[in-house]
Design goal:
- With about 400 residues, this protein is of the alpha/beta class.
- Helix content is about 40%, strand content about 15%.
- The protein has a 6-stranded mixed β-sheet with strand order 3-2-1-4-6-5, with helices on both faces.
- Helix 6 (about 155-170) packs across helix 17 (about 380-395) and helix 12 (about 280-285) packs across helix 13.
- About 45% of the residues are buried.
């Protein structure tokens, strides 16, 4: 069973091909294109590369093409991507304008290019289907809730991977099994012993923090849209509801222009005075004395600590804090700042291990730390591939 995972951006196409034959999980090929302007050609070139590499002889060898879809109206989980689902995605284009339109276009193009191959989407909201209702609601009228105004949560594939892998690494196979089977049995797999509590920190160009108990999410810092939560590379993150009308009235800009600025000129880029949306540039400027760059880092750290603290309190502590994604896996200085002065909560980093860890699995907490702190590189594509396989096997 060979499953192609296509990651579609507004100007990019990246892919990984997995083989699940004989119970294995083998990565056969990966690649990608940036600055894509002709998507039909990019898809054709992707398939051509797979053939040239000898990992498929024809498109007919593909059991499915899987997609890390983001959000759709009244649809979540792992589903076949038919026109009904694509329309539901279009209905929520406004909530994920940078994500949904490119995916919809790409999915339709794949359907034309490989019409006999099933197309499957694992929605980023899926991991939060089982979260407690009070953790997912806003204090709004029922009529607002009925049209979708609630916390949905995102980065579900990444946080699900962390739920599984952290449990495996820390000897909780029972919790790992529950996380693996979450979309099969809704978290009913048996768990033995004390609750296993993980705070998963997906920190990158887009960031979110999730509390996880026994392999099941209790909430996510991202809310109704990817515009919320922590400051992102150029998306503002959490913002008071009155800010938008105030900006429109005071600056005399349109709602659309204000939304554009929130999405393109906010976040770390906005905090750093427009310097850059790349954390590497911002850190470099901060070390050279740029006060706005330092402010961007400080706000990011402060917001990460706020969300980690909230889930720590909600879960009555944590067994592990996990850092993942581009910033979480690679920026030791920010990991150290987020975990600083938390010894009274049982969180103590090993400075040398932290400094030496980059994009590899490692425990970076000190032996005396009651809470384990880990770095685990995420693998969202593998999660999408696994769930795509499950869907195919459950529906002949």
């Amino acid at each position: 069973m060979k499953i192609l995972i296509a990651n579609i951006g507004s100007t990019s196409l990246k892919w990984r091909l997995f083989d699940f034959s004989n119970g294995a999980e083998t990565l056969l090929h990966k690649g990608g294109f940036e600055r894509v302007t002709d998507y039909p050609k990019a898809i054709g070139d992707c398939l051509a590369q797979l053939k040239e590499a000898g990992v498929i002889a024809s498109e007919g060898e593909l059991a499915a093409v899987g997609f890390k879809t983001v959000i759709a109206k009244n649809v979540t989980g792992c589903v076949r991507l038919d026109e009904r689902v694509l329309q539901a995605m279009e209905d929520y284009n406004g909530l994920a304008p940078a994500h949904n339109p490119p995916y919809i276009t790409g999915i339709r193009l794949f359907a034309k290019r490989v019409p006999s191959v099933p197309l499957v989407g694992l929605f980023e909201t899926a991991f939060y289907q089982f979260a407690p209702e009070p953790m997912m609601r806003y204090a709004v009228p029922d009529s607002w809730v009925e049209i979708g105004v609630r916390r949905w949560g995102f980065h579900g594939a990444s946080h699900k991977f962390i739920a599984e892998r952290s449990a495996e690494l820390l000897g909780r196979e029972d919790v790992a099994r529950r996380a693996q089977n979450l979309y099969v049995d809704a978290g009913k797999s048996p768990v033995e012993g004390a609750p296993f509590r993980v705070i998963s920190c997906h920190l990158g160009g887009s960031s979110s923090i999730t509390g996880i108990v026994n392999g099941v999410a209790i909430g996510n810092s991202l809310g109704m849209s990817p515009q919320s939560g922590l400051p992102h590379n150029n998306r503002v993150g959490d913002l008071d509801a009155e800010a938008l009308p105030y900006v429109v009235k005071t600056l005399g800009v349109s709602i659309e222009e204000a939304q554009r600025q929130f999405a393109k000129e906010g976040g770390l880029k906005g905090l750093a005075g427009g310097l850059s949306n790349d954390i590497r540039d911002i850190q470099d400027a901060a070390t050279k004395g740029n006060a706005k760059a330092q402010l961007a880092l400080d706000v990011f750290v402060s917001e990460a600590r706020r969300w980690i603290g909230g889930y720590f309190f909600q879960m009555n502590g944590a067994d592990a804090i996990v850092f993942t994604a581009g910033i979480g896996e690679n920026r030791a200085e920010l990991r150290a700042a987020i975990c600083a002065n938390l010894d009274q909560l049982g969180i103590v980093l090993d400075a040398e291990k932290n400094a030496a860890t980059r994009a590899t699995e490692a425990v970076i907490s000190a032996p005396s730390s009651k809470v384990k702190v880990l770095v685990i590189p995420t693998n969202e594509e593998l999660v999408v591939a696994r769930e795509t396989r499950r869907l195919l096997e459950s529906r002949p």
